[in-house]
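Structure first, sequence second, as always.
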């Protein structure tokens, strides 16, 4: 949907392709909701669903990659920066990795703490940058707050890369890395709350910019997924009580 929202009206070919994927993922979601969530990964129904979903997910991954390539060469009228797709392509790679196990009826090995942070910190940074870009220049306090989160996520990314170097000779889970994970969770929860407040301001027409509820709401379940995964590494990491993995219905 973000691709459709940001494509020029004259880019009919790409808009139609994006719309086709919206429909395809909508059908997959309907099929998934009809399945018993308690079924094990080696259940035939779950395997069949994974095998149906895999080519759709892979096709969309290649679709976004092509859009990024065209955006880099200014060959498409698309109001999304090339770096935006780095975050979504990383997410898609993770989904495809998981599906690679599900199609064979196997549970997937979770990412390491370093790998988890490497992927989702870039996603969090991307959300903060996009939010900043969608806020009116006159909303200086909100822009300053958003800028603070951008700086924090950039600092976290730099430290995580350094920790990745330490892991050459230091086993994972050492105290500095675990404390760092807690620090990241604090920043992510604070940003989550900030987005929640931004949604409320938007719903009451109290914030200037070119925001949409669709844009704002997509941050919440993704952040919750990240926090739930992160909480596996330290009991001090506790996702907010308002966390949910399904998209919230904030448009009402």
């Amino acid at each position: 949907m973000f691709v459709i929202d940001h494509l020029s009206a004259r880019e009919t070919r790409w808009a139609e392709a994006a719309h086709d994927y919206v429909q395809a993922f909508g059908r997959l979601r309907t099929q998934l909701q009809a399945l018993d969530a308690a079924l094990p990964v080696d259940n035939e129904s779950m395997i069949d669903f994974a095998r149906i979903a895999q080519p759709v997910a892979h096709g969309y991954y290649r679709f976004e990659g092509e859009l990024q390539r065209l955006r880099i060469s200014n060959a498409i009228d698309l109001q999304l920066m090339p770096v935006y797709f780095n975050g979504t392509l990383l997410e898609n790679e993770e989904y495809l990795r998981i599906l690679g196990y599900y199609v064979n009826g196997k549970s997937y090995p979770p990412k390491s703490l370093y790998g988890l942070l490497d992927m989702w910190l870039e996603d969090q940074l991307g959300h903060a940058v996009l939010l900043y870009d969608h806020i009116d220049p006159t909303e200086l306090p909100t822009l300053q707050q958003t800028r603070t989160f951008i700086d924090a996520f950039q600092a976290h990314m730099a430290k995580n890369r350094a920790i990745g170097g330490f892991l050459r000779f230091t086993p994972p889970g050492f105290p500095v890395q675990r404390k760092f994970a807690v620090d990241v969770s604090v920043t992510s929860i604070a940003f989550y709350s900030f987005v929640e407040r931004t949604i409320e301001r938007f719903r009451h027409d109290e914030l200037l910019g070119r925001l949409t509820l669709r844009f704002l709401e997509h941050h919440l379940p993704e952040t919750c997924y990240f926090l739930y995964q992160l909480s596996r590494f330290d009991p001090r990491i506790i996702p907010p009580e308002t966390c949910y993995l399904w998209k919230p219905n904030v448009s009402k």
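Margin note: Residues 113-233 form a domain with the Ferritin fold (CATH 1.20.1260.120).
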